[in-house]
C-alpha cells in the first residue's frame, strides 16, 4: 500500500545500493534488533498547539539513526517492525522512554503537557495491552493524564467489541485516546461515537492547500466532532493560509511545521519552558502577528 511504496522510494535514498525487497527488510529487521539492544533509538517530540501557538501537548515520534544505514524513515522501519512483530518491544521501549523523559522534564521544573504515543494495531491487540500500559505508567509514577494514546481508525474498528473493552479499561484509568490520520480509513464518525475518544487528528491530506472555498468537508468533520464531544487536531499544517482557514473553522489544535518540526528533547525544552512555539530563542518562521 501507499506507505509501503513510500518506504521503497525512501529506501533508495537511504541505501547506496538498489532496494532489494525482502533482503533489505531483513537488514532493517537486524538493524532494529541491534538498536533495541543497544538502546540507540531516539524519540523526537512535535508540539501540538492552539492556533495562537500555545503548546497544549506533544507527539512522540520514533527516530532510527543507524550508524551505517543512516537515518531510516519511520515510513520504512515501522511497517517492517509491524511485519516482524518487533513493534511490540519497540512500542514498549517508546512508552518507557517517554515516561522517563516526562520525569526528567518534571525534575527540571519544566511545565508538563500530555505526550501522545503512537500505538500500532499489533500492539493494541495484545491480550494484556491495557494492563501493560497502566503498569508502565505506574512503574514510572506518571499520572495517566500525561500520556495520550494514538490509534488509527483501522486499529479501533478491526474488532470493535474487543477494542471498546480495552479502551474503556484505559479510559477508566484516565487515559485519553486520539484517532490518528482521521479520514484516511473510510470510517464514519458515527462508528466511533460509542468509543471513549477525546481527539480526532485530521489527516494532512485534508489540510494541504485548504482554502475557504474548499473547506466544506473539514468544516463538517469539525462540527460533527464537536457535537460528539471530541477536539480536532489538524496534522501537517505548513502554511499561514491553511492556519487561517482552520482557525476560522474553529479547529481546536494545530500540529505542523508552521509551528515546529519534531525536535530532540534538548531543542524542544526552550519551547516547553515558554509554553509557546514562537519564542525568541529561534528565528520566527512567519511574521509575528500584530
Ligand atoms: P503520524 O503519527 O501521523 O505522525 C505525524 C507525521 O507527520 C510525522 O512523520 C511528522 O514528522 C509528520 N509531520 C508533522 N508535521 C508535518 C508537516 O507540517 N508537514 C509534513 N509534510 N509532515 C509533517 P514521521 O515522524 O516521519 O512519522 C511517520 C509515521 O510513523 C507516524 O505518522 C506514525 O504513523 C509512525 N510512527 C512514528 N513513530 C512511531 C512510534 O513510536 N510507534 C508507532 N507505532 N508508529 C510510529
Ligand atoms: Mg500519530
Ligand atoms: Mg497522524
Ligand atoms: Mg499521518
Automatic annotation (TrEMBL):
Highest taxon above the source species: Bacteria
Location of this fragment in the whole protein: 522 to 811 of 825
Domain (EAL): residue spans on this chain: 25-276
Name of the molecule in the record: PAS domain S-box/diguanylate cyclase (GGDEF) domain-containing protein
Amino acid at each position: 500500500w501507499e506507505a509501503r511504496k513510500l518506504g521503497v522510494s525512501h529506501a533508495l535514498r537511504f541505501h547506496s545500493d538498489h532496494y532489494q525487497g525482502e533482503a533489505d527488510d531483513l537488514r532493517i529487521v537486524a538493524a532494529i534488533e541491534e538498536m533495541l539492544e543497544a538502546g540507540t533509538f531516539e524519540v523526537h517530540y512535535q508540539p501540538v498547539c492552539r492556533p495562537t501557538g500555545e503548546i497544549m501537548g506533544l507527539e512522540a515520534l520514533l527516530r532510527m539513526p543507524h550508524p551505517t544505514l543512516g537515518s531510516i524513515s519511520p515510513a520504512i522501519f515501522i511497517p517492517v517492525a509491524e511485519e516482524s512483530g518487533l513493534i511490540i518491544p519497540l512500542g514498549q521501549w517508546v512508552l518507557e522512554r517517554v515516561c522517563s523523559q516526562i520525569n526528567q522534564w518534571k525534575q527540571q521544573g519544566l511545565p508538563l503537557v500530555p505526550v501522545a504515543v503512537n500505538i500500532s494495531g499489533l500492539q493494541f491487540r495484545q491480550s494484556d495491552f491495557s494492563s501493560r500500559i497502566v503498569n508502565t505508567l505506574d512503574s514510572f509514577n506518571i499520572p495517566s493524564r500525561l500520556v495520550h494514546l494514538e490509534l488509527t481508525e483501522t486499529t479501533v474498528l478491526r474488532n470493535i467489541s474487543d477494542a471498546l473493552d480495552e479502551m474503556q479499561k484505559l479510559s477508566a484509568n484516565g487515559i485519553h485516546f486520539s484517532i490518528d490520520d482521521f479520514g484516511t480509513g473510510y470510517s464514519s464518525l458515527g462508528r466511533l461515537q460509542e468509543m471513549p475518544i477525546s481527539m480526532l487528528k485530521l489527516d494532512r491530506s485534508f489540510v494541504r492547500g485548504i482554502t475557504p472555498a474548499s473547506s466544506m468537508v473539514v468544516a463538517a468533520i469539525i462540527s460533527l466532532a464537536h457535537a460528539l464531544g471530541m477536539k480536532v487536531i489538524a496534522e501537517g499544517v505548513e502554511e499561514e493560509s491553511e492556519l487561517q482557514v482552520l482557525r476560522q473553522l474553529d479547529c481546536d489544535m494545530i500540529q505542523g511545521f508552521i509551528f515546529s518540526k519534531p525536535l530532540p528533547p534538548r531543542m524542544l525544552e526552550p519551547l516547553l519552558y515558554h509554553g509557546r512555539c514562537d519564542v525568541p530563542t529561534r528565528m520566527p518562521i512567519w511574521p509575528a502577528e500584530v
